[in-house]
Amino acid sequence: MIPLPVVKKASERDFRLPENPPTEDYHEALDELEKDGEIIVQRVPEPYIEVKTKYGRTKKIPIGKTWHHKSCGQCGHIPGYSTSIFWLNRQLGLDYIDPKDQTSCTAWNYYASATSNSAAQAAVAIRNFAAAYETGYYPLIHCGTSFGHYKEVRQALIHYPELRAQVRKILEKLGKPLVIPEEIVHYSEWVYAMRDRIAERQVIDMSHITATVHPACHYHKLIEEDAIYTPEIYGAQRTAIITGVLQELGVNVADYSTWFDCCGFGFRHILVSRDFSRSFAVQRKIEVMKEEANPDIVVTHDTGCVTTLDQSQFAAKAHGKKVGIPVLSDSQMAALAMGAHPYLVLQMHWHNTDNRPFLEKLGIDPDEKWREFEAAVERLKSGEQLYLTWDDVEAPVAAK
Amino acid sequence: MALDLRQNKYADVPWEEKERLFEEVKSDMRFHHALYGCYECGVCVAACPSARFYDFSPRVIAQAVAREDVDLVYTLMNDSIWDCSQCFSCDRCPRHNSPGMLITIMREVAVRNGLETAREALEGYGRIIYKIMSTGTQVSPDMLQPNAFPDWGPHVHHISENLEVWRRALPPETLHTTETGWAVSDKTIIELYLIWHMTGVMDMIEEVDEGLHMILVDVMEERLEEEGYDVSF
Which structural domain, as residue segments, surrounds residue A341? Predict the structure, then answer.
């Protein structure tokens, strides 16, 4: 091999922020618009945690008093994803709202079918923001696509006065103010910011677990500005999200060469052209992870990524592909580490790829846990209870 | 199918019509923030998932639009843009182009003008549009039916069989629903319908799916009327 002293491994590279960030500071732009009376900026409630974004700017992550902007894909098909986020909040004793006055961001449909337009997309976003503002709680966005799309909406509203005028007129008709949050915050940023408190309550050892991480495109590529980076993780050449949490939990995070690739979700493809999604997810992600890292688990932080990477593995088995890695969100991994029930809280039975060996490796008996879930379901079937509530699933977790 | 960039597949479409659509693309307020020029470096193609599995190239899109190649833009608007994954991996462009955003704009123009290829691309997608526009959540638990997701295996069957009781087993009270992702309040739905009404989205739906448009109009007008709104789509 030819020695190339100028080429260093990522871990050995010096981290230097650009002197002049190539992107605008949206904080300043929002403040200007607020000063001009054009918008209301909803401020991040105190106490908050400060983190650094891609170009070294500071971002505030709220700790509590959060308004949970749910994800339709999570709630619809992988409900343990959202349930785990709520469970973490409850375990940490934090105040939050799980609102009914919330619609989907409608961005999945927009990116899939284009049957919408800038004004409608912005109005839907601001209607949701205004609904949060009216409660006094701060929006925490569960979906990566909602997060990315809302950043696009923010950028458009900052730059296009005609769009602001159009949206303001619509919001007036609805009796709502034009509110933009000071920060658009993804739930995985909250999990990242809270990782030390989560680790303090960890009861399941994960030090013998190897994980691969898939960062979601709409988190770190779509408006790259306000994703979290730190020099300690891949020399700030990749987002710190997920990896920072897993490392705090003692998990061995293994690298693989196609980390930047998307999952293959494709928006319209996952629904009506799934051969593409399956092929991409298996050939460019799962097989590469298996070959290069052989992880116990894939951890990601968006609706479509969990769905595509997990569901695509079933059909691939018939083709003899190297698959069979379960997929969880970072919220589910954090909840599991803190002792959450794999079926009552994580709802792992909604996932496809066999996750029993993973649970067994953690010292959790999946048969016993499934029996507990079935016993709870039996209470619903018999009419003894109509619904399970948090009281039924919220086992207290001791701090270290 | 291979994308044929050499032949003018759409020679029978008047150039003026193609130019009209291109002007509509260029008139979108986002257009000038999506295209600053192109080095032909191919970084966007290297990052693009669709380029690996389709005859698709974000570089070709950016080039055709930058060169104002009206014929080629029309061809791409028909035969290429629906292959895009909308992941925005192409946003790593060193010129700060966003081919993905150009495609979003081109798709909107294709839908707004009812191009036959847009209708074809959205065939089978109508139920999703219906769900999101009428209920405010795009993905519902009851979509998990074995005939809709045969390639996801028997676990979909298992979920659909147990759907109602498994939803009641979810601790957050907003998630007990089966027809929507979560419980959305009546007031919220009305506000969403008013947004669709005030932004012309229903006109776009009519261009690509008249049947779906009729159903949605029925649902929305009835609901709005009940709430005292005299609105006609």
Answer: 201-370
Answer yes or no: are the C-beta atoms of B115 and B78 closer than 8 Å.
Answer: yes
Mean pLDDT of A365-393: 97
HSE on the CB side for B105, CA within 13 Å? 24
Q: Which of B121, B149, B168 corresponds to the end of one domain?
A: B121
> Are residues A236 and A316 both part of a single domain?
yes
A22 contact residues in B (CB cutoff 8 A): 96
Report the number of distinct structural domains present in chain B.
Answer: 2
**Phi then psi for B127, rounded to 5 degrees?**
-65, -30
Q: In this complex, is the C-beta atom of A76 within 8 Å of any C-beta atom belonging to chain B?
A: yes
Report the pLDDT averaged over residues A286-297: 98
Is A313 in CB contact (< 8 Å) with chain B?
no
- Number of domains present in the structure of chain A: 2
Q: What value does the mean pLDDT of chain A take?
A: 95
The answer to whether residues A181 and A273 belong to one domain is no
Residue B48 has pLDDT above 60, yes or no: yes
**Cβ–Cβ contact A55 with B under 8 A:** no
Q: The pTM is what?
A: 0.96
Q: What is the pLDDT of residue A203?
A: 96
Higher pLDDT, A209 or A397: A209
- Residues 161-200 of chain A with CB under 8 A from chain B are 162-163, 166, 169-170, 173-174
Q: Which of residues 26-45 of B touch A (CB under 8 A)?
A: 28-30, 33
Peptide bond into A326 cis (omega under 30): no
What residues make up the domain containing B52? 15-121
Provide DSSP, B82-98.
GG-----GGGG-TT---
Assigned token pair, A261: 């690739």
A117 in contact with B, Cβ within 8 Å = yes
Report the pLDDT value the prediction gives residue B3, as an integer from 0 to 100.
Answer: 76
CA distance A266 to A268: 6
pLDDT at residue A20 in the model? 86
Write out chain A residues lying below 8 Å of B137, CB-based. 72, 75-76, 103-104
